[in-house]
Amino acid sequence: MIAGPSRTVRSLILLAPLLVFLIGFFIWPLFSMMSQSVSDTAVLRLLPRSAVVLPVWDRKSPPTVSMQTALMEDLKAVDDDQALGDMVRRLNSARSGFRTLISKTTSALGNTANPPADLVSIDKRWEKPEFWLAIADALSPLTDRNLLAAVDLGRNAAGDIEHLPADQSVNRVILVRTFWIAALVTFFCACIGFPYAMIAASLDGWKRDLMLAAVLLPLWTSLLVRTAAWFILLQEQGLINDLLRWIGVIDAPLPLIFNRTGVIIAMTHVLLPFMVLPIYSVLITIPKNLMPAAASLGAHPLRAFLRVLLPLSLRGVASGSLLVFISAIGYYITPALIGGPGDQMISSIIAFYATGSANWGMAGALGVVLLVATLLLYSVYARLSAEEPGRR
Amino acid sequence: MKTIMKSGILAAAAVVLSVSLVAPVFARDLTVVSWGGNYQDAQRNIYFKPFSEKTGKPVLDESWDGGIGVIQSKVKAGAPNWDAVQVEAEELALGCADGLYEKIDWDKMGGKDKFLDSAVNDCGVGAIVWSTAIAYDGDKLKEGPASWADFWNVEKFPGKRSLRKGPKYTLEFALLADGVSKDELYDVLSTEEGVARAFKKLDELKPNIVWWESGAQPLQFLASGEVAMASAYNGRITGINRSEGKNFKVVFPGSIYAVDSWVVLKDAENKDAAQDFIAFASLPENQAKLPEFVAYGLPNKEAAAQVPAEFAKDLPTDAANMTDSISLNVDFWIDNAETLTQRFNAWLAQ
Fold first, then answer.
1. Cβ A20–B12 below 8 Å, yes or no?
2. Is A387 on the interface with B (CB under 8 A)?
3. Does residue A359 lie in a domain region?
């Protein structure tokens, strides 16, 4: 029959917008981000002659004449400013000073009336092996340096992996902090969201609508607006502190802003809908007569809750927690505005590399680390939730 | 199977085609990007609106907080959605070296000799000379700080401090507070010991610092009493005093000044209109209106001469304010920004 294939075709056409969207806005960016973190062609594609000469250098002694000539030839051949910019950024990121060094060198090489004899005569820094080492280490098309640096590791001169010095090690601390804050927020969301969803599910009519609207309305308000509102509420001369002082509970203002407390309060509020809604949707499917049935069999209300309602609603709690946790680890604005320096999460570091220094390799590598951690957590969740039916 | 794939590809192509057919209908208006807050309000009144009236076309304005990565990603993606952007000195140097900006048509601007030397660049026209200085509320602190050493002195001046988050300015201010003279500042900072010394000095103040990222924040912190003093862009301080009747003070000794420039993003849709706009914003009669609203120095020499004395005394370019202030070393920061930011972030996280 023709009905079969033509139906497939039709459904494929229906799916096409989704597929195009997924490929264009999800798979392709994800792939290019991951490839950015390991690809390292910025230097290699502009310095083909140096790539031939540099590998035979002993990595210790001052640069030889052939190395200098090769680099000079390479730099003279560059005609694409943006490609040169990528190369300089890559080199300066490995060794500070390349910015001014290369711009000084290229403008000296451009001076055809009075061509320089060698690089050292342009700038003394070219005598130092460090600068040549940075170039030599940037000549392989694939690199693990970004991924290693994302977890505070690096390679030493001999090529062995070792810890970066303490004054450059920040990512691991911040990654741990990111997961810790996300876990705390998830915990508080569950503590508030579960009772809230239970009450909402037990009501009906306008009361239920009102409770749901109270959750949904903030969800439709911009994140920035809600964060700014918390800023006004939490600050030292803010509503909360003024009110507490007016009642006479406290004498000095409580430190609620620019610290962990403020971040947790604001993030819990912002993410609460993602906890309440999944739990609520599970709770309303649970037959209302289960609790009376448990009571008729002699169960204490607490026991009935623990043995009947809680296990049945756990799936909602689990998916709510997963939603909240995964949203929370990517948070940027709220910690930036409400938090202190000790509360910045990994997104702010990614943002620095992406927008501040245009080092997309590092931004991508940190993104990959975050992605891998999230996938690991998700697989744990998937395994836990898959086991449940078997136990019953 | 072949037909399925074919029709799938056709359908995908149809979607892409319809999207791309619709898009060019909305030609973008000239988009000018600056630094927000009361500074951009002033620019809107004296540059954006009059230019739009003159040309009869709308001018859109957006604001940003800097970052060469923002510019780079817009230009590399092709067809950037910004045209004229006001950038800081390092972004000018980095972007110009990397080919992210159009070359400036200096004939249109009235010639290079009309401007201060530091405001002339192949890729940019100076927009303002601005300072980062200590600011405090004169109503709350009768006897205010006079130097960065005072800024660090939390016993004499209790209360929190606010600084711009990042190593730039922060390290310089720490060294000044530690007694380094302004002439030796960048020599000291260029050494490993100097950087360590700056961080050590910052350790002292660390528990009392609230970091800001956008230029309007330190004003809010001062106004709400969250901090006792802050580093701030000098023009905004004078601006808020005039517009909201505040009594905020600017401490010029030890302040660091730099030139912000207008640039045109490479291959921007309205690049010609953007050059016209920059020329318009650089006209002496237009530029001279700025100091009344925000106290930034003017790079157009003729404009600077036209500023009334009552406003001129608040400008970073005023001779009295210049004496003990420092010029930002752009070369130092384009070389060291990434390493020092990494170190700064590690220091913050400790």
1. yes
2. no
3. yes
User: For chain B, how long is the longest CA-to-CA vector?
Assistant: 83
Which helix (H) or strand (E) element contains residue B257?
strand B248-264
Residue A136 has which token pair?
A: 């030599």
Q: DSSP per residue over B24-43, as a string?
A: GGSPPPEEEEE--HHHHHHH
Q: What is the mean pLDDT of residues B21-30?
A: 66
Domains of chain A: total: 3
Angle between the N-to-C axes of helices B192-205 and B330-349, in degrees from 0 to 180, rounded to the nearest 10: 50
A251 lies in the same domain as A373: yes
Say whether B343 sits in a helix, a strand or coil: helix
Which residues face B265 on adjacent strands?
B101
CB atoms A19 and B70 under 8 Å? no
Q: Which of residues 157-186 of A touch B (CB under 8 A)?
A: 166-170, 173-174, 177
Alpha carbons B59 and A102: distance in angstroms, whole number: 38
- Express each pLDDT in B122-134 by its tens digit: 999 999 999 999 9
Are A8 and A28 members of one domain?
Answer: yes
Confidence bin at B27 (pLDDT 50/70/90): confident
A278-318 tens-digit pLDDT: 999 999 999 888 888 888 988 888 888 888 888 889 989 99
Question: How confident is the model over B246-267, as pLDDT tens digits?
Answer: 999 999 999 999 999 999 999 9
Residue B254's closest CA among B151, B173, B170, B157?
A: B173
CATH number for the domain spanning A375: value is: 1.10.3720.10
**How close is the nearest chain A Cα to the Cα of B100, in Å?**
7
Whether residue A70 is found in the same domain as residue A125: yes
Helices (H), A23-97: 28-38, 48-53, 65-77, 81-94
CATH superfamily of B132-255+329-349: Periplasmic binding protein-like II (3.40.190.10)
CATH superfamily for B27-129+259-322 is: Periplasmic binding protein-like II (3.40.190.10)
pLDDT score at A391: 45
- Ranges of each domain in chain B: 27-129+259-322, 132-255+329-349
Q: From residue A319, how far is each of A83, A264, A281, A324 by CA, in Å?
A: 46, 20, 11, 9
Is residue A219 within 8 Å of A270, Cβ to Cβ? no
Q: Would the CB atoms of A358 and B7 count as touching at under 8 Å?
A: no
Residue A3's domain comprises: 1-39
Residue A297, both tokens: 């069999």
